[in-house]
């Protein structure tokens, strides 16, 4: 796999070590976990897939944009591929900054941007024998922020 994508369990300790900074007064960690129900159905299996070179580039771009658009020291993203068990972590967003507000803002922006911009597909199987590729988010339209 790649630096940001793996079929193995995600390693939070490695992310914390990699982002450690004496300047950081704030650390925000978002962990997305696989839930057992979706759209009123019982999930029995979940599989993430992607085209790794494209997804890796998009994740790296989000990390870089977070550092330039928010006043943060670091942003690291990791996402699972393959079969992910119910209750397991499927995505981590780790942000360090001098102050908490910027860390929270950047972390929320990063996970929302992953959902909108990174081509990672989620296939769920249900206890009734059905399965579906979960509908993703629409891509963001380019917005003129006036800045």
* Strand and helix order: EHEEEHEEEHEE
Assembly state of the chains shown: single chain
Main CATH class:
Alpha Beta
Structural class by secondary-structure content: alpha+beta
- Low-confidence segments, ≥5 residues, pLDDT <50? 141-147
What's the domain count?
1
Mean pLDDT: 91
Based on CA atoms alone, the radius of gyration comes out at: 16 Å
**Extended strand count:** 9
Helix content range:
25-40%
Q: Describe the main β-sheet briefly.
A: 5 strands, antiparallel
Portion in strands: 25-35%
CATH architecture: Alpha-Beta Complex
Instruction: Name the CATH homologous superfamily.
Output: Molybdopterin biosynthesis MoaE subunit
Summed up:
The chain is an alpha+beta fold and about 150 residues long. It has helices spanning about 10-20, 50-70, 100-115; strands spanning about 5, 25-35, 35-40, 40-50, 75-80, 80-85, 90-95, 120-125, 130-135. It is elongated, with a radius of gyration of 16 Å.
